[in-house]
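_Per-residue structure_
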Amino acid sequence: MYSLKLVQHLFIQSMYFGELSADFLDLDDEADITTSSRQDFFEDDARYIALKEFIKGELSTVRSDWEETRSNAGVAEACKYVVVSDWYNDLQGDDRKSAKKLFGKINQLTIDNDEKKELFKHSVLAFEIKERIKPIRKNLC
């Protein structure tokens, strides 16, 4: 088992767990990519760099997909409440994206449904207050 240095470089050590098989790192007809202790890789080797970039891209896709799934689940939960659903369906552009992301985060909280319902409603109020403050802020600057 090699060190977690590659994983740590990609800032994923606390988010993902699994095993990676990359047989191309240990080809007999290529120079040895591992250090003499067999606990790490030569980080300037093209194979290591290619693997690192591949993993980075794949994890970015996983992270994006998970965020989208979480946000969609949050919208579905928030829109169970008619007043929130009506408000959300009227949003457009960045406001809609921000609300979707916020609903996803609220939905992940481990709180009872009544508290979650209140948070969804308060988030609508916060958005509305923010919209009313924008023109005032513009005039002050």
Summary: The radius of gyration is 23 Å. The helical segments are 5-9, 46-78, 82-90, 93-108, 113-140. The chain has five helices and no strands. The mean pLDDT is 80.
